[in-house]
Amino acid sequence: MASAAAEVATLYADHGEWLRSWLGRRTRCPHRAVDLVHDTFCRLLEQQDAAVTPRDPRSYLATVARRLLIDDARRRKLELAYLAACPAEIVDSLTPERVLAAVDMLEEVLRLMAGMTDTVRAAFLLRRLGEMTYADIGERLGISERTAKRHVARAYADCYTLAYSD
Hints:
This protein is mostly helical. About 80% of the residues lie in helices and about 0% in strands. The protein is built from 8 helices and no strands. The longest helix has 29 residues, at about 55-85. GO terms for molecular function: DNA binding; sigma factor activity. It comes from Caulobacter mirabilis.
């Protein structure tokens, strides 16, 4: 049985150019297409315990690449939202490293919020973004004011832990 790395190398030799062309049509940028081909095959190499030789290699590669395209689009959207929210004088002083660090932190916050219960997440967002009182949050969510405070406090504690843990 061939090693996983050898199987990925064979897949690359047989279908790498096809995948680059396929991604080039979707991204309309040859440089992004090459980067995504690289990321696709790196993803395959990371799946050491998975069987690498699929029955339909092009379909399999397209699925992996499509998921990476979706992740890339989400990341770019998040980066643009971050830059749009920054005042112009801050945007002018941003380095690519600072933007990357901010986007990484935003992605971590989004993952954290996705792990919260619906009620905790809603209470936190209503308080933080909607600037609602705890009484209004409780009324809107059908919970007591005290429970609304606890939910918001729990969400803040989770965010604090995320921001200050190593």
